[in-house]
Design goal:
The chain is an all-alpha fold. It has a single domain, classed as Up-down Bundle (Four Helix Bundle (Hemerythrin (Met), subunit A)). It has six helices and no strands. The longest helix has 23 residues. The radius of gyration is 15 Å and the shape is globular.
Amino acid sequence: MTDRVTAWFRQARQDVAQAARCLEDGSWEWAGYISQQGVEKALKGAILATGISYPHIRSLPALAEVLTDRLALVFSAEDLDSLKELSQFNVMARYPIGDEAIAPIDAISSRQAARAVDAARDFVARIAATVSQIEPGDGGDDQSA
């Protein structure tokens, strides 16, 4: 794994650790958002590890689709559902919702946040384990991204 890819995974793990701290502190909206960020960074790091630039998108299922064609990493229907749920935190956890201007702190439950943190831990670990098996010369790291 190149230094650049390693850096993406180090930050992904740090994001998930911070999400867990936010969960403990009762900052559920931030736990959800930072969980989404951690998985996004792991997916983008894995894409870089295959030798291509990652697309500049936030959709976790779309990023996973890029990987499905490049790595021996299979995302089940349940995985894709979890990635869809995590993707929603990118906006939902940061901005008031709708005409009633419901603040994210009032819209996201502790259960939703806990599910997000658990899912992020699982995804980051699984993606990192798959990327660590890439042999030098199997794809490498496109430095243009």
